[in-house]
Amino acid sequence: MLKIKNLHASVEDKAILKGIDLHVRPGEVHAIMGPNGSGKSTLASVIAGKEEYEVDEGEIILDGENIDELGPEERAHKGVFMSFQYPVEIPGVSVTNFIKTAINETRKAQGLEDMPANEMLKLIREKSELLDIDRKFLSRSLNEGFSGGEKKRNEIFQMAMLEPKLAILDETDSGLDIDALRIVANGVNKLKSEDNAVIVITHYQRLLDYIVPDFVHVLHNGRIVKTGTKDLAHELEAKGYDWVKEEVNA
């Protein structure tokens, strides 16, 4: 589904990614871990098409198509979704209206008519029940006055409604207590299928107790320096990152 080949990227002429290779197949969950400043959020932003980042070398291929030249909205229309570490507040725009607009823009890009209102309402009802979301929540302004847990749950609701091929969760566990973490992880697990894939970016192993990855990759100094199973995450939790750095520098 996603092939990243020898990806180099920079921001303001500072090299951050220095040769990333990553293959993600449908049905897989990949976790990306690493110390601060290793390039984790940059990788997420580059895949999603954030314009501040310059791709200096390499390719990003989604379902056999090179998406390097596509803008963020075009990548979204092709099935790339990114859950932000710090979701923004949009006063005056309800959660429901925001998601209706997003779905219909994607449909328009695919040459389809707007989703009929009754179909949209049915989908909203199904997904809010799946994720245990109170319907009153959906009439509130997007993220305005939301707690950290509510913001992250709203991101997962958007993911449920948009049904992306590739979901990138950028430190979704940041600032969540254990109950909110369970709720968000439960939502992600309910949405996993053989037709989509998830990339989870996290500092902490605890999220991976709830969203169990097929592969764990350690990013250090802009490169993937180690790949393993979920056991690697437990090892990192116990020992930190210094031993990985020592292996790389040996």
UniProtKB/TrEMBL annotation:
Keywords: ATP-binding, Nucleotide-binding. Residues 2-246 form the ABC transporter domain. CDD domains: ABC_FeS_Assembly. The keyword Nucleotide-binding applies. The keyword DNA repair does not apply. Belongs to the ABC transporter superfamily. Ycf16 family. It comes from Winogradskyella vincentii. It comes from the Bacteria. This is Fe-S cluster assembly ATPase SufC. The gene is sufC. The lineage of its organism: Bacteria, Pseudomonadati, Bacteroidota, Flavobacteriia, Flavobacteriales.
